[in-house]
Amino acid sequence: MSDLIPSLSELHSLPQVQQPSYDDPDRLRWVVNSLRQLPPLVFAGECDELRDKIALVADRKAFMLQGGDCAETFASVQADNIKAKLRVLLAMSVVMTYGAQLPVVKVGRIAGQYAKPRSKDTETRDGLTLPAYRGDAVNGFDFNDQARRHDPDRLLRVYNASAATLNLVRAFVKGGFADLRQLHAWNASFVKDSRIEERYEQLAGEIERALGFMLACGVNDDTLTTVDFYASHEALLLDYEYAMTRIDSRSQLPYDTSGHMVWIGERTRQPGGAQVELLRRVRNPLGIKLGPTATGEDALSIADRLDPDREPGRITFITRMGAEHVREKLPRIIETVEKSGRKVAWVCDPMHGNTFETHNGYKTREYAAVVEELNGFFDVHDELGSWPGGVHVELTGEDVTECLGGAFQLSEEDLDSRYETACDPRLNRNQSLELAFMISERLSQSRALRREPVQVPDWNA
Ligand SMILES: O=C[C@H](O)[C@H](O)COP(=O)(O)O
Ligand SMILES: C=C(OP(=O)(O)O)C(=O)O
């Protein structure tokens, strides 16, 4: 492609984990070449714009909300589903922006989140062992031989599903759906728990009055009617991410055009590994997951590899320690990184360290543990004087029953009624909104602790 990017065979010669094993290399080659002919899904300039916004997060001037499905599926690429996800993310961001008086950078786990790293390569049911489901990008969810085969043609379906999703997302966020005057409409048939509903309706009413005042004063610009929304996913599959990497015609630099922001997972963040080798060459803003076994030195060594020039907004550390470990493990990591002089965005993923299996066999998370990890995250940052820059959550706009607790006190027995995730349990729309109120309170406290005046960054500066 260019000497700025290693060839696919060079990439595959590096240590790598969590990759599919395809049985037809010719077909894979054909798929990769076909993908390389297709237009980029996102534009380099949009990735730069997001990097600038994340730089504001690292600089304490904004908060980041990153959320969406654990695993998107081809079957769920439907208008209602995408709209519901967007609606919950927009409602959460309004709650946080208004409550904490801080701009919120909105990033979906969307339009590309189709590949999953797994703990085990296989799954056994009733004595039959088959390859584990690795996301629709790799194989099918159904438990039979044919579905579980790793099929390279699925990468083309990922491209098409991502393009269709992005197209609708762009239309929604720029075409009137995200108009702040629609706040009540986003809520129609939404929050059903009376406590949260009351809070949301009260907040929407206050914002409506404030907007009315602004409009009466003659303030009427795009910021009230449209939002900037970005797409992100885990850059897990080397073949796909390589095929989507393009040289930007403006800067002559490579960008992974499969999403605005891509992240490296907890299982694939080896500094000498293939994912890091590819992503260190592309210009996108990058997320790096850090679990409870990560040290401050690990964090620094991967950051040095991915971002030797310490470019503002390039690195977001997404910490997912688990509620049990966050207060013990996180401080050392933050201290080591901050002492090095690096400025990164610190984002809390309160989901991935808090997964367990119930007696009735469901993989789940307790809403209380999610809140507890977030409280630990805020407490640690408040104590160290660093900035709790964002949250990364697995959620859906539907009323699923996948995580326990929350406003409706979902119990293990309730999981049976709407457990629909293809991989890990997601917060439903009520739990998500409830979490947004909790975050907005903690954010206000963090800002008050620092006695920071309200600052409105100039996104376009
Ligand atoms: O989303 C993260 C991982 O893909 C997921 O937690 C792995 O789940 P597993 O342990 O069931 O394989
Ligand atoms: C796999 C994921 O997380 P982690 O790498 O932190 O386990 C994920 O966010 O989908």
UniProtKB/TrEMBL annotation:
In Swiss-Prot or TrEMBL terms, this protein is called Phospho-2-dehydro-3-deoxyheptonate aldolase
Pfam families per UniProt = DAHP_synth_2
Pathway membership? Metabolic intermediate biosynthesis; chorismate biosynthesis; chorismate from D-erythrose 4-phosphate and phosphoenolpyruvate: step 1/7
EC number(s) on record?
A: 2.5.1.54
Q: What is the lineage of its organism?
A: Bacteria, Bacillati, Actinomycetota, Actinomycetes, Propionibacteriales
- Alphabetized PANTHER family for the sequence: PHOSPHO-2-DEHYDRO-3-DEOXYHEPTONATE ALDOLASE, PHOSPHO-2-DEHYDRO-3-DEOXYHEPTONATE ALDOLASE 1, 2
Which Gene3D superfamilies does the UniProt entry name for this protein?
Answer: Aldolase class I (3.20.20.70)
Recorded catalytic activity of this chain's protein: D-erythrose 4-phosphate + phosphoenolpyruvate + H2O = 7-phospho-2-dehydro-3-deoxy-D-arabino-heptonate + phosphate
Question: Any keyword Transferase?
Answer: yes
Q: To which species is this protein native? A: Brooklawnia cerclae
Entry superkingdom: Bacteria
Q: Which family does it belong to?
A: Belongs to the class-II DAHP synthase family.
